[in-house]
Amino acid sequence: MNVKAQKYIPLTEATYYILLSLVKPMHGYGIMQMVEAMTNGEVKLGPGTLYGNTTKLLKENLIVEVASTDRKKCYELT
């Protein structure tokens, strides 16, 4: 494994599910719903956890914010 990738291992549970849910561009509330559905309610992300993680992922260029037709911030994988 290369050195650059090693800093992401291990992923936190929240980060793992956020990245997994972004198979298509999605806004924050959609991510929270997707994670809850994928885990059959076992994992519920709160807004603080979600936006703390998305801020970190944006800074690391693992996700980007994409244009949206409404006021919601949408994210997608890079």
UniProtKB/TrEMBL annotation:
Listed InterPro entries: Metal_resp_DNA-bind_regulator, Tscrpt_reg_PadR_N, WH-like_DNA-bd_sf, WH_DNA-bd_sf
Transcription regulator PadR N-terminal domain segment(s): 22-78
Recorded superkingdom: Bacteria
SUPFAM superfamilies: Winged helix' DNA-binding domain
The protein's name in its UniProt record: PadR family transcriptional regulator
